[in-house]
Amino acid sequence: MTLPTATKRPPAAEAPTALPPVKRRNAELVMTLFAIALTLYAMIEAGLTRNNEMPPSLFLYGGLFGGLAVLAHFFIRFFAPWSDPLLLPLATLLNGLGIAMLWRLGEATGDTSRASAMDQLILTAASMVVFAGIIYFLKEPRTLQRYPYIMAVGAVFLLLLPLTPLGSEINGARQWVNFGFTSLQPSEFAKIALVVFLSGYMVTKRDVLALASRQIKIGPVKVLDLPRMRDTAPMAVMWGFCIIVLVILMNDLGTSLMLFGTFLAMIYVATQRGSWIVIGLTAFFGACAAIYPFVPHFRVRMVTWLDAFRPDVFCTDEAMANPESFCVTSGNSQQLVQGLFALAEGGMTGTGLGGGQPGYVPEVQNDFIFTAFGEELGLAGIMVMLMALALLVERGMRIALASKELFIKMFASGISFLIAFQTFVVIGGVTRVIPMTGATIPFVAKGGSALLSSWIMVALLMRMSNNARKPAPQAIQDEGATQVIQR
Amino acid sequence: MNKPIRRLSIFALALFGVLLLNVSYIQAFAAEDLREHPFNRRQFAESLNTHRGSIIVGSQEVAYSEPVGGDSDQYQRVYENGQLYAPVVGAFRAGSATGIEAAENSFLDGSHESLAVNNFRDMLTGEEPKGADVTLTINADAQQAAMDGLEALGKNGAAVALDPATGAVLASYSNPTYDPNSVASVTETDQAAQNWTELESAEQQPLLNRGLNQRYPPGSTFKIVTAAAALENGATPESTIDAPETLDLGAPLPNAWGGPCNNGAPDSLAHSIEISCNTSMANWAIQLGGQTMQEQAEAFGFNQGEMEIPITVTESLSPLETDPNILGRSGIGQANIEATPLQMAMVAAGVANDGDVMKPYLVESVQNSNLEEVETAQPEVYTTAISSGTAADLTEMMIGVTAGDEASGPGAQIPGIDVAGKTGTAETASGPTHNWFISFAPADDPQVAVAVVVEHGGGSGGTLAAPIAREIMEAVINE
């Protein structure tokens, strides 16, 4: 539909999107302290409820985690003083709640073999070092624009790494690389590299992707504005990679969905053409439908999602033969359904930290940590978490709006959308909105790779926001008065 | 480029909106259903952590909870004389419960609303919360007599005893039984679950409470219902009807001994009951008609659907028969007549209680953890089956069954006490006959009404079932 020209906004209307030139560093400090306090309070509550005692290592956690967060704040104060003041407190809050929950699942129950807050705390420390490093060294994120193809090769390399002998399979998905002392999930970093590549690539190819077109008409009505065949090459490569490599070879549905979703979002931002989304979605879901009969693990996931409550999906055959066993031996949808039971148990206000029984959910320390929050903090607590994540995303989008360079706009919106979409894929999977795919909630879930990549993303956003919000240098000439040369 | 970024951020917000709506739905609207979902083990796991009340018979706690100890918060359910009471008490297991443990669960685990005040008071005073105790109507001696008698026979079967005046269930035993302790362990759950599975699949069906949940053809014990219908419709104990050697009902219907009932002459109602004549009683049923027969059976409690006592009792059946051949057979408790032992005990109890059938009940009272009565049984009339005159006539006739010159059930005689009874030997489609006896005593002041059935006993009701009935009645009367 065409809009009458009178309603079109003049370009000047975009000016108010620039953030006001205020630092608000003190506000950031207060909010960060609040997030730390919330974390420690959560640990105290869990300790008192479960073991009737204060967490014995409360000061250690308070000192280390609180100290790190406060240090990060002062680091920002010096090296990125104009950056967005909400990002650090939000990241601290989410990371802290994650640590508190892992402490409750691991240390508080005396079994740290599966979940350990101390490990998570050490990983947090390492992540914050990287966070500081990025803020310090990457003064101008636009320099990344110079190496799009290196980034692309890097992303592909990282994604394929698990297929090499180094790779290992955990819970049916081949997405880990074992280094002996620790294992990493390279796809967590590949996605950031991919956003860098796409930002650089789209900025250069933007015009041709946006403008060259073939119109499809039915009679006089324009139905779709299709790009030229040769311009669909990047889309085809991306699609082939996501479907063939990630879904078929690696059974990594989550990464596939996340990367392709982010790709679509970024191509839309670059070109502003809906037809790319239509083509992309058609190709992706068409491929999914086509491979459905041939890829068993994909089929299993769909059945698990749609028929989660069917007895033969919930139980194993063995358990089916003995209905009284209550399906203690788990079938495919056991985790999903137990997760829903955990959420239901929590209800509106939850059982209180330490008061629930999150252990019913298998592997609760990973993606399903969300259900542990749902059970113990209730709908109220979950809403807070979702709002914190949403706020993080929207601040990121705001940075994209406020930036002036196209590359930064692409980059910031791409990373923000990545966070949003990752959250959606994970939590949507856990709460049965979409099929379960296996990815991690940013900041919250156990796992070093995910935590590190989340902090990297926040570091990049902070650096970009600093540059966007920094007021333009003052005009030096002032009514002919004495010139003051300012550095 | 800002317009698509704005749109993208709205889309991102929409994604969060979907998540928020969905978790709201799960945690607010669907939560109740999910919590009670049959797959959900949480509800039962929690129940293992509650201090359940005891189940009491007489002054003995036959089921009680004791802490597992160690660092476990769980309680172990312990059953005293488990095998004896299992048919009534049932078993409380990790996962579910049966019998009274299931039927009175809300009292036993303290969640019943009438316990709310008590629970609140316990909370205030810092007392450990405990469920309410449930006292049963079961008479320990009568229950033991039922078990001893049926176990000695080594046959499957059931015995139910009622207090005719109130409907209180004095005994309810089903053979074979099982030990609930073997399936209730909370520490060795795998073994417990395996034991339960074995019980479930056992050919003898030890988990089936035959007294309340198994229907049998009642055979000649149903002649009491037929006689009641005749008396209610103008007949007297002296009224006679043809009682030949065999009656042609499609296939010939003989008498148990192969001869006529009164040397070929029409036989009186009283004599027909005393010797358990088939041909005369079939003739009575045909003469009274299907409608009348069904109404009389329903007046005793047939066709009334399931009953909660509070254990669920299976419905007994007396369909409307229009074919005289089938009607004749149903008049002697064959064809499509099917009754639970409890139902036949209710027939005896109705006759004993001047025609009023009292509603059976198993729970005498419920006491909260501070020993205050929360509930006490209130006896109520279930149906009025017959007039008191008819009841008196039937009682006389039934005394003849145990004490008459040609008594068919002398095995139920108790020295010095008149016993009113009726034998039954029911043909089964497969295998030997089921052997029945229903009775009440003392006939002039009934304290107990009994029904005993021996599955595929292959003998007669008078020889196999009547002695067990006598032992049960003696156990009650001699208290």
From TrEMBL, chain B:
Gene3D superfamilies associated with the record: DD-peptidase/beta-lactamase superfamily, Penicillin-binding protein 2a (Domain 2)
Domain of life: Bacteria
Domain Penicillin binding protein A dimerisation: 52-134
Residue intervals of the Penicillin-binding protein transpeptidase domain: 157-474
Single GO term (MF): peptidoglycan L,D-transpeptidase activity
Cellular component aspect of the GO annotation: plasma membrane
BP GO terms, sorted: cell wall organization
Protein name: Penicillin-binding protein 2
